[in-house]
Structure formats: C-alpha cells, structure tokens
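Lecture notes, unit on binding sites. The following record was shown on slide 14. It pairs a sequence with adenosine-5'-diphosphate.
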Amino acid sequence: MASPIGIDSKTPLQLVPGIGAQKASLLERLGLRRAIDLLFFFPRTYQDVQPWSTALELTENTRACVLGTVIDMDSRFGFDGRSSVGVLLEIEGGGYLRCVWYNQPFRREQFSIGRRVLATGVVKSSGVALQMRHPEVLLLADGEEPPPAKPIPIYPLTEGLQQRNVAQSMAAVIPLIEHVEEALPLEVRERAAQKLAFMLSATSSSGNSTLLNSESASVGLPLFDGDLAASAPPKLLAIHDALRMIHQPETMIEAHNARLRFIFQELFVLQLALAMHRHKTQYSKPAPSIPSNAMVHARILKRFPFDLTGDQTLAIEDIRRDMAREIPMNRLIQGDVGTGKTALAQYAMLSAVANHYQAAMMVPTELLARQHHRKLCEQLKDSKVMIELLVGSISGKDKRELLQRIAIGTVDIVVGTQALIGEHVEFAKLGLLVIDEQHRFGVEQRASLRKSRTVPHYLVMTATPIPRTLAMTVFGDLDVSILRQRPPGQSVVQTYVSEPGQQERWWKFVLEQVHSGRQAFVVAPRVEATSEEDAAGESAGAIQQWELLSQGPLAELRVGLVHGRMDGDEKQQKLDDFVSGKIQVLVATTVIEVGIDVPNASVMTILDADRLGLAQLHQLRGRVGRGRFPGYVCLFPRSDIGDEELERLKLFASNHDGFALAELDLKLRGPGELLGTRQTGLPTLRIADLSRDAEILQLARSIACEIIATDPLLNLPEHAKLRRQVVAKHGATLEISDVG
Ligand code: ADP
Ligand code: MG
C-alpha cells in the first residue's frame, strides 16, 4: 500500500522529504539505503534523561541526570599510557560535577568552556568532588532548550554522521512505519508473552534474570529498575508500536519492550531456520538402522580397559537409541577435556562395524588423526576390524589403493582429516561419521558432507564446552549429550600465574620434574615474533623461545620444537620423539591444543598467556596431568598486562570447570573468539546478544520447535511472512530454499 504521495518503506532515503542527498549518502555508509533499512537501524543504547538533579540531590552510586555548564577542562596522559579527559560542570541550581573519560581522547574536541551539557551516569565521589565516569552526554547548542525528560536513542555512527542527523532522518521515516508488515503472527506474540510472564515470575525471586538485570545496562540493554519492571508485565509489541518505541520511546520501559520484541524476533527467525534444517536432515533421506543388541553391546564394552562413568553410560544409551532408528542421528557430545569422549566414538564405530557398516572419524589435524588411528589399532589388534588412516600427506599409489578399498568396503574404519570428505572419497556403506573437536570445523563443511549420496549417522564431539546459548545457535540442529563426570583418578591440574621475577624459580621446578622422569610442554602462542621489539623482549615466538630456553634455563635437557609451519611428517616426528621420551621438553605453538595425549607430560608453561582465550587455555591445560602424575601449569603473562587481564588469568587459575570458563569467555571475548576464527557457521546477530539474552533465546527456541513440529516447511498462509524472513536471513547457510 503506497501512501498518497507515493512514498513507502521501500523508498530510497534521498527521496524521503526531510533527509536529502547529503544525509542519505552518509547513511549509505552504514548500509542504509531505503526507508525500511533506517527503520530497522536500532539504537545501541539510550541516554536515560530524567528530571535533572541539583548537586544536593545527587547520591553516590545512583544514576542521575545533570544539566550544567562547562567551566573547566583537562586532559592527561598517565604513565600506563592511558589518556583521560575531564570536564568540570557547574550544575544549574548549584554545585559542581566532574565528568571523566578514559582512553577516549576525541572527547576533548566535543566540549568547550561555556557549553551547556546534559550528562547522565552513575554518581561517584572521588575525594572531595562528585564525578561521573563515562557518562552519556547531550551537548546543547547555543540557546537550545534541554530536551523533555524521556530517553534519547544513541545510534552507532560513522565518520561525519552525528546523532542529531540520525535522529532527524529517523523522524522523517517514522511516518512510514505504517507501511511495514508484521512478520510475527499474533498467536506467536501472545504465546511468547505468556511464556515470558511465566519465566519472570519463576526467576524474579532469584533476582538474576537477564531480562531484568540492571547490570545489563553495561551491555546496551536499557537500564532497568526491578520495581518498574515488575509493575509492567512483559509484552511482545506489535511491529508498528515496536518500531516507534525503539526509536522514540516515551519511557525506558517502552524502549526495553521494543528491544525485547526485536531480540525475540531475531532469535526466533534463527531458531525457525535451525528447526527447519533439522527437520530436513531428519526426514529427507533415511540412515541405516544400526541396532546394538545386548550381545554386541557387551562385546564392545569388554574392549574398554575401564568401567564407563555414569555420564558415558547415559551418552552411549543416547547413541544406541539414535543409531537403531532410520532417522539419521545428529548428536553433539559435549565434554570437557579428559571426560572420555573417545570411548563413545569407539563404541559407535564398533557397533556400525558389527552391523557390517563402515565408520569414519574426522579430526582437525593430522597429528590427532594419527594418534586416534594408533590407539584404535592397539585396542583392536586381536580383531578382524580393518582400520585405515586417510590424511593429506598420503598420496599417489597408496592413496589410490586406499580409496579403492574404502569404495569396495574392505576397510571398516577410516580415521582422517578433512581429506576424508574430499570429492574422490566414496564409501561402500558408510553408516556412521564421527567428527571430533567440532569447533574446528565450519558448518559449511558439515553441510557439504550431507550432500554425499549416503546419509550416515552423525556424531559430533567437542571439547570446548560450548555455552548453552551458543550451542543452541551454532549447533541448534543437533541433539546434545553432556559428559560432566570425569573418569576416576584424574587430579586437578595446579595452575599458577607467574609474577615478574618468579620465572627462574619456575624453570627450576620444570627441571626437577623432568629429572624425576616427567616431560614438559612450553607453549608460545605464535610461531615467530612479528616485530623486532618482540624478538628482543619476552614476547618471542616459539622458534625464538626454543633457542632461548635450550641455551638458557633448560640447557641441560633435550628440548624439541613443533609448530604449525612444519609439514605433517616433521610435526609427527617431533611428537613421536616426545611420546617416546627422546624429547623431554616440547616447545610448541597451540598446534598441541587439541586432543594430544601424552600421559607422561606433567608440566606446562604458557608464555604470553594473555593472548589466549580462557577456553583455549583450558584446552591446553588439559594436555597435562592425564596419566598417573599430577599436572602443573604456569602462565607467564606479558609484562604490560592490564589489571583486568590479570584478573582474567587468575580466575582461570582458580577455576577448573570448562563450562564456566567458556561462559566467561563468551561474555569477555564474544562468540567468534570462543569458537575460533574458522567457525563459519556463526550467524551475525544485530540486536540479540548470546551471553545476555539466554532466556529469550530459550523462549524463541521452544516456540520455533512447536511451530516446525506442526508446519515443518512454514507452508501455512499465516507463516508466509515468517518463511520469507527465514529464507532471506538464513536460507543460504542452512540450505533452506524458497521453493518446495
Ligand atoms: P577426551 O577426548 O574427552 O578429552 P579421552 O577420551 O582422551 O578424553 O579420555 C581421557 C583419558 O581418560 C584417556 O586416557 C582414557 O583412556 C581415559 N578414560 C576414559 N574413560 C574412562 C573411564 N570410564 N575410566 C577410566 N579412564 C577413562
Ligand atoms: Mg578427545
């Protein structure tokens, strides 16, 4: 429906009255071309403008809004390299307030003496004066009246574009809201609101619901007063109200409700896509039924030199049940390092073989492939099971022969790297595919496997405990089994953070350990230092560290080096030498992070530890203390490490729960860092935040699953608009096409 003057939500911005070519071209830098793009360009946060306070009314540790005039300014550089900009305001009605910003030198240019300013922030006292750290500020032009007491949206900007430009342009497109179509059926909004109300009543007593948490102010959700929230039951606003309230809210509650609607919508559309994809993989092609009857089951268990833990037993029950069905299994096993995931893979592979199907296991590195292959061969050496290794370094005639044997079915189990899913690999009867350390593979690779003619059962294992919210997003199409229990006999790895001057003592300890028969890892995050300063300082790469250590503190030991730039055979040789004890200390990059199992290794030193994420550090820590010997890890941070960074490392030292560390990593470093840069399947979220919006995600997921269960392809007319959104946003990644 076009408006009388022919302008609607699809109109290019430069044609919207009140915007003009100049502003339109600035907005285009943000990717905003049409009116509707601008309407869906959401504020990052809001300045919560309330009736302003006088100095007398300000109380420490509460938020307040202050109207004042700049009477003094200062800017400094500290010894620690931090800059600060301070602005002293004379408050209207009497009194003074200092505003201060750290590491935002551009603030200096914003202010001038005599300028009227509206500042919102938390009041602190520093010595004699009251101050606000990093307040939100609105600068008033000469003679401009202060705005009414309602929230001011703050948008992400680009160079040359100011908040007031965005606000003016937004005002010009707000009348076009009526042309925007509602994508969420009323029924969905009502169901969501009901569930939200229920979730709030269930969590309000515990007081830490992210829906209401006032701490969320720091991550961009409108600050919230618990009482206010409780008096206003949550709603899922209709699109027109939501759009108006997100851009021009009368109150913070309105802003909050508007954001809630869009956060829900974003997560809901994603969860619909995942549920559709899951439905498609389950029902488009069958998998072979691979039952493991009591006899097979007992025979496989007898192969393990230990009793399974309770969690292993439960996971094996899940796997047994899944594989017996003709619906392809899609199961993710999450278990911290050392919880015994390999046994599950072995169980599943052997039950496939017992049913005359082939099994394949794909791992991220050649080192790991060789290790798994060797262990499987040892474990099954008195059986007739044929096990082969397929990695990139096998080529020529050997490879051709191997591929042939895989194709005619004389190989039962193949362990390999990505080479396994190469174009030329054809299995005679692939019944199961195991993928170890899934977080190293992208979803695209998973998808490309599914294109093959056979549809195997599918078991994914990851040792990076993935926070629940992330698992629901990246692996939302998989069922999950979790191993929390550890096999008996594993002790906690003692972890230390070295302080300057303690290094010498630590290296002495490493010497003692090695002299008593143990072995040691030294991890340097990078292969080589990138700049000359680094090479001279402590921040050297693995190669330099290897030189320094083998000539310095560890000169009396046999020190080896392994890193990612070596070729496969060379890396393998080094690792073999380490396993056999020929090398006592292995200096390595993070290539050893995943899955390497050397039970005699008891000490690890991690250099430049602050470069690494907590989940990654936890992986590394899992490489020691695997055998009978207690493990010790020492982190050497870089000397210029900040207080917060140091805190992060100390937290790691005292915490051994991989799930908790991964949650923390997600919060501190974001999902990309946590999963590694190679993770390609991570959806980009514009307004939702996985570490903050866990409850809304859960809600979106449950409603999405209910809908897909009754309308798997979203073919019902009331779902048509939803379907269009799902296809537009996630169709390509999840192979959900518009036709059919
Ligand atoms: P993950 O792959 O989960 O990091 P692994 O499968 O490599 O862990 O197992 C770690 C170690 O624990 C291995 O040495 C393995 O043999 C041992 N292990 C696994 N399950 C048990 C169990 N139930 N009882 C005793 N030891 C076990
Ligand atoms: Mg493993």
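Take-home: The pocket of adenosine-5'-diphosphate (ligand 1) is lined by residues 306-309, 312, 335, 337-343, 463, 487, 597 (CB under 6 Å).
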